[in-house]
Amino acid sequence: MPIGQELTQEQSQERQYRQKQREQRIALMRASVLKKQITEAYEILENIRFDYLGDTAFREKIVKAKRELEYAINDFLLDTQYHKNAIERINKMSPEEYDNSLKVPLNEPTQGRVITN
Predict the structure, then answer these.
(1) Number of Cβ within a 10 Å radius of residue 34
(2) Structural domains counted in the chain
(3) Which end of the chain has fewer CB atoms within 10 angstroms, the N or the C?
(4) Are 95 and 19 in contact (CB under 8 A)?
(5) Which domain holds residue 71?
(6) Does residue 83 form part of some domain?
(7) Inside any domain, residue 49
(8) Quick one: pLDDT at residue 109?
(9) How high is the pLDDT of residue 58?
(10) Over 90: is that where the pLDDT of 28 sits?
């Protein structure tokens, strides 16, 4: 496209749609990388030996860290199926449908809270 020429509405919708598709694929890959890193961190904690260490407060810190990693790995944002469903949902839409979906206000709460203006 020549410099200075504005995008048509259709071109703008197409560009926005393709960008969202790309972002969804990136989110899936980042979730996979993060799951791998959490698994590696858990493995490191799992291999810590408490030989000759009787401090239960220290031991509890390691156990708590492992528990928090378990919670993190079970978060929906790291769920491969969640991301695949989001990708599939976007791919089933046309650029126009995607644009229209952005204009419809969501009535769903964010993280359990209702956002009011």
Answers:
(1) 15
(2) 1
(3) C
(4) no
(5) 9-102
(6) yes
(7) yes
(8) 57
(9) 80
(10) yes
**What are the residues whose beta carbons fall under 8 Å from the beta carbon of 2, sequence distance 6 or more?**
none
83, with CB counted inside 10 A (0-12, 13-18, 19+), is buried
Integer Cα distance of 37 and 43 in angstroms = 10
Query: Which amino acid, 69?
Result: L
Domain membership flag for residue 36: yes
Residue 115 lies in a domain: no
> What is residue 110's three-state secondary structure?
strand
- The structure tokens listed for 24 are 């969804």
The pLDDT value given to residue 116: 47
- Kindly calculate the radius of gyration of the chain based on its CA atoms and give it in whole angstroms: 22
Q: Are 78 and 15 in contact (CB under 8 A)?
A: no
**92-98: average pLDDT:** 91
Taking the C-alpha atoms of residue 34 and residue 46, their distance in angstroms, rounded to an integer, is 18
